[in-house]
Every structure is written in structure tokens, then in C-alpha cells.
Write a structure and sequence with these properties.
Layout: H1 2-23, H2 28-44, H3 48-55, H4 57-60, H5 63-81, H6 85-111
């Protein structure tokens, strides 16, 4: 049942994003920021963890999950360092995912020949 919940929740999130892209004039970058901020807000009010337990990868893989990771990092850093943790926590928590995205993106650009759209 875990796989089914992950599939339909992740699909629902993707469908809602697709509707935003099709029916509004929001640019994809703004929609991505909206997803990350939504993940932060849901995490801050305590709704994201039960949602994550229910949906598993369907909730953690989309950009909502990245917002949750940033919020967790900030929360932990503030508990350890005080106010200074506001600035360091998100960077520390998101560093591995961001680094992996950059490294794998670079490797993909070396291995595959990209072409400009016409």
C-alpha cells in the first residue's frame, strides 16, 4: 500500500503543478519557488511530517520535500546556534541534494550532446 500512496500522492502533486503551468501565467521558476515555500510552510505548521509518513516518496521527492528538508535544517540549527542558525541551517541541510544535482547535471552535459531548441 505504501507504493500506491506514494504513486497517487506524487501524481496528484504533479497534476496540480501541471494545472498551474497550463491555466496561469506563472513562469516555471515561480512555480518551483511556490512548491519549495509550500513545503517550508507545511513543515513549519507541523502538517508535513504526518503527510510524509502517509505518502512516503510521493511527498518527499517533489520540491515540497526540499522545502521540508530546508525547514528541518533551519529548525535544528536554530536549536544549536540560536539566531545564527537561521542563516546556516538551510544551507547545511540542502547541501548534499544541491551538490548532487550540480554534479549529475554536469556529468550528463559531458556524456550527452545537448542541442539548442529551434
Amino acid at each position: 500500500m505504501d507504493y500506491v500512496n506514494a504513486f497517487w500522492v506524487g501524481g496528484l502533486i504533479c497534476a496540480m503543478v501541471q494545472l498551474l503551468m497550463e491555466k496561469t501565467k506563472l513562469m516555471p521558476g515561480r512555480i518551483m519557488v511556490l512548491l519549495v515555500v509550500s513545503g517550508v510552510v507545511l513543515s513549519a505548521v507541523g502538517v508535513y511530517e504526518p503527510f510524509l509518513e502517509f505518502a512516503g516518496a510521493g511527498a518527499s521527492v517533489p520540491l515540497l520535500g526540499f522545502g521540508n528538508v530546508l525547514m528541518k535544517g533551519v529548525r535544528e540549527a536554530v536549536a544549536e546556534q540560536g539566531t545564527l542558525g537561521l542563516f546556516a541551517g538551510g544551507f547545511r541541510a540542502g547541501a548534499v541534494g544541491t551538490s548532487a544535482a550540480l554534479i549529475f547535471g554536469y556529468l550528463a552535459s559531458i556524456l550527452f550532446r545537448s542541442k539548442m531548441k529551434k
